[in-house]
């Protein structure tokens, strides 16, 4: 370990090119998706991705609250991303802080571009994303969970929306950063991809990378999204095969 000021900096990349958890630069963390994890929502999904645990629930199309947000020609898409107070090691102040508001806004905009909102005028499609345990990449895990939950709710969409963060770690472009890599790495680039068209509908960057590094990061991220897309589709296939999602057969 080296140190910067008071913070201990872990060795992020071994001489053999292995990351802090043994992954190669182009490897994703383990991803498990359960579609239909909740009874009361119109659609839901639970995602475990590395040490991230995220639940998404969808309600709607339903009446718009507050009423003045209603649009006559289409549904509005309202996403709320929230990190539970117990989701991080230092207790987070409960409630919607500026970060959560910003993430909620960019996720709403990403989904607005894939949902056929004009099919449901004067309604709201409400998406709740609850981060139960956080280890970097939670906005992407939230998008993946929300996307499967929207499909589970039967909301018509152009496509599912896989998402992943790529970053720069110890001078190298790496797929799907975990917390230490996010904290001590040089850059973080979350993205969400519409697989059928290849369109990116969310792209944010923190930190610095060169233009060739950015090109490499996009290439790696798009490949990562396509792999995540397969896991998302599989989760939905399993949901429809059993009809019960995470619930044991016969549960009320
Ligand atoms: N984090 C935290 N407290 C906070 C916000 C973030 O501990 O109030 C951690 C958490 O593990 C999160 C990571 O920092 O996943 C990276 O946060 P970022 O804002 O980059 O968003 P994310 O990568 O989760 O989409």
Primary descriptors:
252 residues, alpha+beta, Ribosomal Protein S5, domain 2, five-stranded mixed β-sheet, five-stranded antiparallel β-sheet, 27% helix, globular, binds uridine-5'-diphosphate
Write a concise synopsis of the structure shown.
This protein is of the alpha+beta class. The protein has 4 helices and 12 strands; from the N terminus they run E-E-E-E-E-E-H-E-H-E-E-H-E-E-E-H. It has a 5-stranded mixed β-sheet with strand order 3-4-5-7-6.
Q: Can you characterise this structure?
A:
The protein is α+β, with helices and mostly antiparallel strands. The protein has one domain (22-239): GHMP Kinase, N-terminal domain (Ribosomal Protein S5, domain 2), CATH 3.30.230. It contains four helices and twelve strands; from the N terminus they run ββββββαβαββαβββα. It has helices at 98-112, 138-152, 179-184, 211-242; strands at 2-4, 7-9, 31-35, 43-49, 52-62, 76-83, 124-133, 163-169, 172-175, 187-194, 199-203, 206-207. The strands form three sheets. A five-stranded mixed β-sheet has the order 3-4-5-7-6. Strands 8, 9, 10, 11 and 12 form a five-stranded antiparallel β-sheet that branches. A two-stranded antiparallel ribbon has the order 1-2. The chain is globular, with a radius of gyration of 19 Å. The structure holds uridine-5'-diphosphate. Uridine-5'-diphosphate is lined by residues 88, 92, 99, 134-139, 165, 179, 182, 188, 190. The site of uridine-5'-diphosphate has 14 residues, from helix 2, helix 3 and strand 10.
């Amino acid at each position: 370990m080296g140190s910067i000021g008071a913070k201990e900096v872990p060795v992020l990349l071994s001489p053999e090119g292995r990351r802090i958890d043994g992954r190669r630069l182009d490897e994703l963390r383990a991803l498990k998706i359960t579609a239909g994890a909740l009874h009361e929502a119109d659609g839901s999904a639970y995602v475990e991705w590395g040490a991230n645990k995220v639940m998404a629930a969808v309600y709607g199309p339903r009446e718009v609250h507050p009423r003045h947000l209603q649009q006559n020609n289409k549904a509005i898409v309202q996403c709320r991303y929230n990190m539970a107070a117990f989701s991080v090691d230092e207790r987070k102040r409960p409630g919607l802080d500026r970060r959560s508001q910003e993430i909620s806004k960019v996720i709403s905009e990403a989904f607005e571009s894939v949902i056929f909102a004009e099919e449901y005028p004067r309604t709201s499609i409400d998406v709740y994303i609850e981060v139960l345990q956080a280890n970097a990449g939670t906005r992407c895990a939230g998008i993946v969970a929300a996307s499967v939950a929207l499909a589970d709710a039967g909301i018509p969409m152009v496509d599912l929306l896989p998402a992943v963060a790529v970053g720069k770690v110890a001078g190298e472009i790496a797929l799907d950063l975990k917390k230490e890599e996010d904290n001590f790495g040089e850059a973080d680039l979350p993205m969400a991809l519409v697989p059928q068209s290849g369109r990116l509908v969310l792209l944010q960057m923190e930190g610095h990378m060169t233009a060739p590094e950015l090109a490499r990061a996009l290439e790696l991220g798009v490949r990562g999204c396509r792999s995540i897309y397969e896991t998302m589709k599989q989760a939905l296939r399993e949901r429809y095969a059993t009809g019960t999602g995470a619930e044991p057969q016969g549960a009320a």
